[in-house]
Amino acid sequence: MSPTWYDVLGVDRDATPDEVRSAWRRSIADLDPSDRRFRSANEAAEVLLDADRRRAYDASLPAGEEPVPVPEPVPVAATRADERSTTGEDPAGRSGRRLPVLLLAVVGVLAVATVVLAAVVWFRPHVDPDEVDTAQSAAEQAIVPVLSYDYRELEEDAEAARSYLTEDYQEEYTQLFTVISDNAPRTEAVVRAEVIASSVVRTSPDAVEVLLFVNRPTTNKQVTEPVVYRDQVTVTMVREGDEWRVDRLQTTPAPE
């Protein structure tokens, strides 16, 4: 039986959107974006945080299906120790020689010290935790005007978007928006971005990378009922003065 999206995030079938959102953030907190589990967690959240898609997904599940328990992996070291204790294998291994007890103790202490040091380096925040939260909130606020526009108010929309961008990224944004300005009046396009969820992906000494799920209801002169495009947007936030601003963003379609 294949795990459900609920299993992937470790939540119950009746989990609230806030519970799903929190579980998603926890799931990807320590994962690299290239990790398969990172992508699976994102796909799960995309479905479960969208009310319509979640209803359709729930309807596709067998009635009364329970989440599939995911067994905890057994540490390799523990497994080998158990095998030695049950088989009576000589701890000296194939060589038949035992290392001196004192040397083993020293090696053990050094190994523990190395792990602790690695953990300290790995988990040491590059940016103050309060600043990370501020950067995440700034990303959520910025992405709405940056990805939204109305063919009747293009100049105002562009100016509003630029106020959330770094000076360097304003130049790139202007080039991109030129394409929109050329086409939107002809098609009478209107795009309104909506943030569904966000999570901090990683931090560095001078930047915070935030992943956002964004819906973009879109209309034009041929489509009067909004068509909702769903995207995953990775935003790099950097400090300029007292404010966090968008320095780079990458948009990819969310998995269906």
TrEMBL record:
What are the entry keywords? Membrane, Transmembrane, Transmembrane helix
Q: Where is this region: Disordered?
A: 60-93
Give its localization: Membrane
Q: Which InterPro entries match?
A: DnaJ_domain, J_dom_sf
Parts of the chain that traverse the membrane: 101-123
Q: Which Gene3D superfamilies match?
A: DnaJ domain
Under the heading PROSITE patterns, the entry gives: DNAJ_2
Task: Enumerate the spans annotated as J domain.
Answer: 4-61
Superkingdom, natural source? Bacteria
Q: What Pfam families does the record tag this protein with?
A: DnaJ
Query: What is the protein name stated in its UniProt record?
Result: J domain-containing protein
Q: Which organism is it from?
A: Nocardioides aquaticus
